[in-house]
Design brief:
- There is one protein chain.
- The protein is mainly alpha-helical.
- The protein has one domain.
- Helix content is 80%, strand content 0%.
- It is elongated and about 90 Å long.
Length: 262
Amino acid sequence: MKMNLRTTSFSAVLLGLMTIAASAQEAAGGVHKKTLWNLFVEGGWVMYPITACSVAMIWFIVDGYIRTSAGKLYPVDHVTQLRELFKKGDYVGAYAFAKTAGSPVADVVRAGVAFTPDGKTMTEEAIISEITRVNAELKGRSSYLSVIGVCTPMIGLVGTVTGMMSAFETLGTSGVGDPSKLSGAIGEVLVATASGLFIAIPAFISYYLLANRINKGIHDITEIVTGLFRAFPYEEIEGRKVGDEEIYAAKPDWNASANVQS
């Protein structure tokens, strides 16, 4: 008996939905395929921020994949030139080249060579600090993809809520007597939700793919720089000035404070 009641209730609901759909189809004059612009208009005002997020997503994906390529992180000609200068023992030339090269691997080498007169420990700390900076810069840019992936479903959800409010308002004023208005409100709900997910899914996928590329690139840079400094003669360079990095700490002048106060 309970099964019959459930079947009857489901059939009644299904029949009602079919009736509304048939009435909407008849009022619209038949089924027609919607263009992308029709879907944009049907989605309501939320389609504007979602479109802006989609453009930003494409830009961050393209920019991220270019910046994390091997040709940008450690160009072959930069690595070759640095290795030749290290083999010759021309560390002043290596610093000068790394300073003007403009690649992440060159920046790491420049930071390391500048601190070689201060010993192995300071050099390694300078290298790690510069690698951390490069890593943070790359991941900071790619993190915007994660922000887009989180925000676009929320924007779509706002469109869903406003669409549902419009649908209930239509039911409250005209009931199901005008199916076209009801279908338009429901269409806004579905288009807004689908659009938010349509942008969020590739944004998240690209974010994690870029994270893997960044990790690999940082690992490769670390290996290249470690190979360069593996047998570095710190004892022979100790106390000399290799680069033009400004040194701020000087010998203490105990009379400076007294002169300022007087």
